[in-house]
Amino acid sequence: MICNLLNVIYPRRCPICTDIVTPKGEKICKECINSLVYIQEPRCKKCSKPIEHEDHEYCGDCNKNKLSYQYGFALWSYNLSISQSISDYKNKGKKEYADFYIEELVRCYGDKIKRLEIDALVPVPLHKSRQNYRGYNQSEIIAKGLGKALNIVSIPKLLIRNKKTLRQKDLNDKERLENIQKAFVINKEVLLKYKNINKVMLVDDIYTTGSTIDACSKVLLSNKIEEVYFVTLSIGQGY
Ligand SMILES: [Zn+2]
Ligand SMILES: [Zn+2]
Hints:
CATH architecture of the largest domain: 3-Layer(aba) Sandwich
Order of helices and strands: HHHEHHEHHEEHEHEHE
CATH class of the largest domain: Alpha Beta
Distance between the termini: 42 Å
Bound molecules: zinc ion
Number of domains: 2
CATH topology of the largest domain: Rossmann fold
Shape: globular
Number of strands: 7
């Protein structure tokens, strides 16, 4: 009821073209969904990035780098449509886009995530100053919604970003790695509250080379977490 009422007062906007979505009840325009590239096989068995040849197991990045996590899922290949959508979601207060993102994550990966028997979802944290400025952590909203849909606890404060990092997209690979390593620490107080958390799935909006997920994963693994997986909305290179 409240939902319907809100829909009348604030009709839902399409996360891609920003127009009012019709018919009512839909979360994205029919045409706009075609501008999103859903990740399909063949994909890298580690990071889920599309690969060209079916007989290759891993993408170039995963072949080159030793990554500490098990593996992960990404929903969309990075392109102009999704990059704009996620940018507005993060920077222009378009929190309602999360409903569409979560719905698609559940539709495409809900069963796979359930089968992994994940103990907790952990969003990649923002530095306190960035979170205060933005007012929310985009990945925390996704983790919470996904957790609710799949009945998995989400623990938003398990990791802390203790170093204000430069924007990853402005850096080259080597700088990214240096920038991100040691940026995260465990929140011991929060960890103590949760017993039997062995398998954790990190949640982030965009995956590039994997350095952020890897840095978070290393912190978790050095604090008695046994296996780390991840899920992201978008994955890609060259931006
Ligand atoms: Zn649209
Ligand atoms: Zn890969």
